[in-house]
Amino acid sequence: MARQKGLFKVIGTLGDVNFYVVKGVGYARRAGGGFNGKAIRTQPSMVRVRENASEFGHCSSAKKAFRLALLPLFDPPKSSALHRRLMGLFIQLKDMDPISKRGQRRVAKGTATAKGKRLLKDFVFVPECKALDFIESQCSFDWNTQTLSVNAMDLKTLAFPKGATHLGLTVGVLDFDFEGLKHTLHLSHTVYLENNRPVGGFTLQPDPLMSPQYTGLAVLGLQFVEVMDTEVYALKAMKACGCAVIGLSHP
User: Fold this and answer.
1) CA 246 to CA 219: how far, in whole Å?
2) Which residue has the higher pLDDT, 154 or 219?
């Protein structure tokens, strides 16, 4: 690679030389080289690249299907940070696959392991949503009855985002097929808790109850909202929404 000299910089290809400009500096280098699609698909030296690409594509598809399955419970603003963290989770789950050869490892086999289950259970979807930690500490989930029990609590200790008048809580049971990427989601009704008001204990339960055929996940959804008369407006900020896996079940 060489720098271009002269007052005017050339951009493009002349003969077998590529000319381009980076941050105002002109460069020239011989065209060609590198890897092309055919080489990646066919050359033995590219086998590791093919293996990584296959597994990455699988993780990306699984991540997308999982995110879409959660939308009725968790519909945050678009966030590249959340995308990266979810992708990182699914790559870790794939890495937990103890059976398949490299290039064929799958998220489904990873979630069946004890470490994979722990990764799913401990994943923090929105670190900015500090309220979720408080709410989780005040509730418990019973898989036998698929019931979320929430303790009496005082919301005066909870900081509401600007514009929020209520906190909405919903529990869902998601049956997710990590191999076929199909899902079924059953939701409870949403309870709206008013700011600066004490809350009596209550329960939430999906209707109807579900018998998971694949991986069952009990999921708690949280959304700060503004309520005007009978109309509910969600706050569009990452810290105003949250989601947590509060229980796991395998058939």
Assistant:
1) 6
2) 219
